[in-house]
Design goal:
The protein has helices at about 10-20, 35-40, 50-60, 70-75, 100-110, 125-140, 160-165, 175-185, 185-190, 200-230, 235-245, 265-275, 285-305, 335-345, 375, 395-400, 415-420, and strands at about 1-5, 25-30, 65, 80, 115-120, 145-150, 165-170, 195-200, 315-320, 350, 365-370, 380-385, 405-410, 425-430. It is of the alpha/beta class and about 425 residues long. The strands form three sheets. Strands 3-2-1-4-5-6 form a six-stranded parallel β-sheet, with helices on both faces. A six-stranded parallel β-sheet has the order 11-10-9-12-13-14. The protein is globular, with a radius of gyration of 23 Å. The structure holds nicotinamide-adenine-dinucleotide (NAD).
Length: about 425
């Protein structure tokens, strides 16, 4: 099948490449010409394990193409996936759908034969209806179908998640597009993926409800961790004890910093805004957002306590700054709150991240990047393990920094408190 992915970011690039690897002819379009030129040279603009090899392979065998010409690419394709960003609006908490509608208007000028237009971007309930209206202005209704196919891949695991998804959700209000979509996904269905067909609006809501639920799970265990810290209980015991109940499950039940990333923060905000629009108070999700916003303050307060309220001129190392491991994505990472706050209080911050230097801290005084773990630890008073990269999981701190003993605040509970304390380090972690 001939596919066009509009928006060649984390979702558009990964799903486009994977669809091409399944034998489809895919053209990935982006308005960012630099991105397209890089990709044409075989250079990958994002960090995603395994992506580079797949891009090069499918680009070479011409199943995958890159272009900044949206109109021609749409004309030459049968199935169009919209994969552009849906960030929070600058004012308020609803989703900014300007990129979506902008693309829909451009598509409406390029419909030369029947096409399926799909939102793979996360879009609020009724967005599909709006896209349909935009397309109808220039085209008769039998020339297109608008479908919702939310994407559930996780950055860092994106290729595996795309190839072996738990479920494929297709929301369409007509039989023809459902048949075509089922056929497109048949290689994944035959490998065991569940195919779920629903109304378009239901598919849109399934995505938001799923993300809001996962964000709730994380926030729930983070609050339980706060109680564990006050009562001398190990939160890991609680996670195991709860997670083994099949109705609960152990995933997303590990205490740590505030949830971040390009999805949970904006999607929880957007769904509450949709609720308000439809006069439905989503009070659980609203309190999750509030609790998560407060999470970084709680951890910062702990940092101040650990340093006996003497933060000024203290050398603090951050190991990992991305919102989670195996991605270079900094969007809404809790490090963006914690690092500036500590720097403002006079701390001298060094950070190391396996995905390198981050522009986000460029303008913040007293924050510097080190290109090795060893250099970042050198002279440190406090080491904060912020992101759960494998690179940080078996460090021999004693060997890395001879002599000086720093304090460790392990926000991911990677290390065993007894082992690390046995090596002579002061060690703090989350909920234990
Ligand atoms: N990142 C994830 O892990 C993830 C997972 C599931 C769903 N989603 C959803 O998928 C959507 C995209 O997310 P992302 O992380 O891939 O975003 P992204 O910012 O990485 O990529 C979006 C791309 O769209 C391009 N773009 C914007 N307007 C365009 C236009 N008019 N024409 C062509 N290209 C255009 C941008 O240049 C950018 O490269 C969002 O709605 C997000 O919520 C993301």
């Amino acid at each position: 099948m001939k596919l066009c992915m509009i928006g060649t970011g984390y979702v558009g690039l990964v799903s486009g490449v994977c669809f091409s690897d399944l034998g489809n002819d895919v053209i990935c379009v982006d308005k960012d010409i630099n991105k397209i030129n890089l990709l044409k040279k075989g250079k990958i603009p994002i960090y995603e394990p395994g992506l580079s090899e797949l891009v090069i392979k499918n680009y070479k065998n011409k199943k995958l193409k890159f272009s900044s010409d949206l109109k021609t690419s749409v004309k030459n394709s049968d199935i169009i996936f919209i994969c552009v960003g849906t960030p929070t609006k600058k004012s308020g908490s609803s989703a900014d759908l300007s990129q979506i509608y902008n693309v829909a208007k451009k598509i409406s000028l390029s419909i030369n034969k029947f096409k399926i237009i799909i939102t793979k971007s996360t879009v609020p309930v009724t967005t599909g209806d709006q896209i349909e209206k935009i397309l109808s202005k220039k085209n008769s209704k039998n020339k297109f179908a608008v479908v919702s196919n939310p994407e559930f891949l996780r950055e860092g695991e994106a290729i595996r998640d795309f190839t072996y998804p738990d479920r494929i959700v297709i929301g369409s209000n007509d039989k023809k597009s459902n048949r075509i979509m089922k056929n497109l996904y048949s290689p994944l269905i035959s490998k065991g993926a569940q195919y779920i067909h629903s109304s378009r609006r239901a598919a849109e809501l399934i995505k938001y409800a799923s993300n809001a639920f996962l964000a709730t799970k994380i926030t729930f265990i983070n609050e339980i961790a706060n109680l564990c810290e006050k009562t001398g209980i190990n939160v890991e015991d609680i996670s195991i004890g709860m997670g083994l109940d099949k109705r609960i499950g152990s995933r997303f039940l590990r205490a740590g910093p505030a949830y971040g990333g390009s999805c949970f923060p904006k999607d929880t905000r957007a769904i509450t805004s949709t609720g308000d629009e439809f006069k439905t108070n989503l009070s659980v999700i609203k309190s999750v957002i509030k609790s998560n916003q407060n999470r970084s303050n709680i951890l910062l307060k702990r940092v101040h306590e650990i340093l006996k309220n003497k933060v000024k001129n203290k050398k603090i190392t951050f190991l990992g700054v991305t919102f989670k491991a195996n991605t270079d994505d900094m969007r809404d990472s809790s490090s963006l709150i914690m690092i500036p706050s500590l720097a403002k209080k006079g701390a001298l911050i060094k950070y190391f991240d396996p995905t390198g230097y981050k522009k986000d801290f460029e303008k913040i005084k007293n924050v510097s990047y080190e290109n090795t773990i060893k250099k970042s630890l050198d002279g440190s008073d406090l080491v904060i393990i912020h992101t759960e990269w494998n690179d940080f999981k078996s460090l021999n701190f004693k060997k890395l920094v001879k002599g000086k003993k720093f304090i460790i605040y392990d926000m991911r509970n990677i290390y065993s408190p007894t082992k690390i304390k046995g090596q002579g380090f002061k060690y703090f972690s989350i909920g234990r």
